[in-house]
Write a structure and sequence with these properties.
The protein has 190 residues and is α+β, with helices and mostly antiparallel strands. It is built from six helices and ten strands, in the order βββαααββββαβαββα. It has a single domain, classed as Aminopeptidase, CATH 3.40.630. The structure holds coenzyme A.
Length: 190
């Protein structure tokens, strides 16, 4: 896996663009990241305008994926300056084991169109193609069936169900682990 990867943006898919997030995305992100239903299975509580603004100027402002706590965030938008539909993150789960983890969140009004699956598939291609990961994982609450379906559709395998392995927002919670290896991903993309 490369020690540092700076993606050439935007990454284009059939219907979408994965682009850099900017401070100008604050209101669009606040719309869905302050929504209790959207945050139900996310590791954070509904966010305030200040929290979203801080995220945009700190973690989301990173331009390269590098280091043991490296991460890259992407805005997902309709092309040519279209509205922000949601955002994605890829982060270094284990640098030595060349393992990355993906995350996704979309605004309620932009779900049910296959946008999350299309964007996550492009992020997986980035993780294996440009970054050269050995293994990519996604983790979710087992009740988050919409998220599990995204992982299924991009070709990840359901690997494990961990019981009460994490205290999320003060509550012992189960975690469903999904994963795909580089060789599995390449075999299905010939
Ligand atoms: C997880 C999340 C991103 C999934 O979003 P989603 O809109 O369900 O996922 P997709 O964009 O891939 O859309 C899939 C649906 O669109 C439908 N669809 C409609 N048109 C489609 C098209 N052209 N192509 C593909 N699918 C299409 C599919 O049939 C599918 O429906 P189904 O889920 O009923 O089977 C969303 O529920 C979310 O943001 N949740 C809150 C945040 C969260 O929990 N994140 C994950 C934390 S682990």
């Amino acid at each position: 896996m490369r020690e540092s990867t700076t993606p050439r943006l935007p990454i284009r898919t059939a219907r979408l663009e994965l682009r850099r997030l900017t401070p100008g995305d604050r209101d669009a992100m606040l719309w869905y990241r302050s929504d209790p239903e959207t945050c139900r299975y996310l590791p954070f509580r509904p966010q305030t305008a200040d929290e979203v603004a801080r995220y945009l100027t700190t973690r989301a402002a990173r331009t390269a994926l590098e280091g043991t706590d490296g991460s890259l965030s992407f805005g997902v938008a309709l092309p040519d300056g279209g509205p922000l539909l949601g955002d994605l993150i890829v982060f270094v789960r284990d640098l030595e084991q060349e393992c990355l983890e993906l995350g996704w969140v979309f605004a309620p009004e932009h779900r049910g169109h296959g946008y999350a699956t299309e964007a996550a598939a492009a992020l997986l291609a980035f993780a294996f193609g440009e970054v050269g990961a050995h293994r990519v994982v996604a983790r979710m609450d087992p009740a988050n069936t919409a998220s599990a379906r995204v992982a299924d559709r991009i070709g990840m395998r359901r690997e494990a169900l961990l019981l009460e392995n994490e205290r999320v927002k003060g509550v012992w919670s189960d975690t469903l682990n999904y994963a795909v290896l580089e060789r599995e991903w390449r075999a299905s993309h010939r």
